[in-house]
Specification:
Layout lengths: L4 H9 L5 H19 L2 E4 L1 H11 L12 E5 L26 H8 L3 E6 L33 H8 L5 E5 L6 H7 L2 E4 L20 E5 L2 H11 L17 H4 L8 E5 L9 H16 L3 E5 L7 H16 L17 H12 L2 H14 L4 H22 L5 E5 L14 H5 L6 H6 L3 E9 L2 E9 L4 H14 L13
Parallel strand pairs: 2-3, 2-4, 7-8, 7-9
Antiparallel strand pairs: 1-3, 4-6, 5-6, 5-10, 9-11, 10-11
Length: 479
Amino acid sequence: MLPTIREIADSLRRKETQPSEWMAQSLAAVRERDGAIGAFLTLDADGAVERARRLDGQPQTNPMFGVPFALKDNICTEGLRTTAASRILESYIPPYSATAGQRLADAGAVLIGKTNLDEFAMGSSTENSAFQKTRNPYHSDAVPGGSSGGSAAAVAAGLVPFALGSDTGGSIRQPAAFCGVVGLKPTYGRVSRYGLIAFGSSLDQIGPLTRTVEDAALVLQAIAGHDPNDSTSAPQPVDDWMAALERGVRGLRIGVVRTGEEEGVHPGVQAAVDAALRTLEGAGAEIVEVALPHAQYAVASYYLVAPAEASANLARFDGVRYGRRVVGETLTDMYERSRSEGFGLEVKRRIMIGTYILSEGYYDAYYKRAQQMRTLIRQDYEAAFERCDVVVTPTAPTPAFRFGEKSDPLQMYLTDLFTIPANLAGLPGLSVPCGMVDGLPVGIQFVGRAFDEATLLQIGHAYEQERGFPMPTPEVAGQ
């Protein structure tokens, strides 16, 4: 198990180790354990070794210096294959790098490879990848969550200290909960989306998966900030999130939502979340009840907005400019065959739903009404934040499920019941491990005000310090 970012940074600062040594450990861990996990789609071993060696002997410039990391394979990397786990992009090599990944590289972090995901980030289990199955490090028959399942599994299994994922409806936080790691979805616009292969442009956000909340703050410090290449990037200053970590929770108000939806929550998950709330209350936080009356419509609204945006975004994958091309007798035949053979079932389902929603006569009935509901959900949060500093729910209603267990798409969609509202409202969300149920991790989710990641990190870090038990290390080799 590789140490945390902080531990590696401290070792490098004291000149006890060199970046190439940590890269060697990371690559050894991948070779030893990834055969059982399947977290990586592309491993850039030679490039990573060379980049790490160039850093040896250089002065440490910041905590990211010399730290190995992985990127979800829908984040573009110049000269390195980026597939979005889809056959239609199986051989795509981008001519540029995403801003978030480039900022890490500029800080001295060393990319080791690209991780598996649900195709085009459409899914909650990583079962929709066109290439391989990623397994939960805690149980080989359980999913790692999705769509950033490869990134979460790589961190949980100790293959890398951290990875980046993307979150459109819970795709960082839900796999973080399933794999027992920390997952942070920043406020929409906090981190540049430039170079992220788009799924839902008004929902997507890049964020870190790490072993600790402190590490999440360190990564956010490196990747956040305005980017002129992204028109949705917010011109917000980069806060000093490390300074917020030691403030504790005394005096903070934690809003708990009691809507009736907790009836669908696994009893063990609810018990773990309730225990975490008692821990925070014991540390000085105040627990208050809040209402999110329109959250019950979030899943339905999301599955109108997200497919509509996916339909528009994926229209560019037509077999002409880049990506997979299947020769046809006519131009139309080529389009149809390229997209039919290039896209998987879930992607096709969402494209068809989105195209229908945006078609004449249905736009007002579906898409416009979903956007109106989105406004009401955001207003619910604004009202709740008049009474509290963060809103707390389980990250997911159950622990990780078994492969094939959620064959009904609707049942799969409901696994994001608690994460979707934050995406619709554009708010930051943090998932922190809070216990084990049936040998699998579960997470507690904190949702905060827009651009108030500081409070989320403050309360998440305080909970980690007060939790009173360590999360067990997965025994990957024994599975």
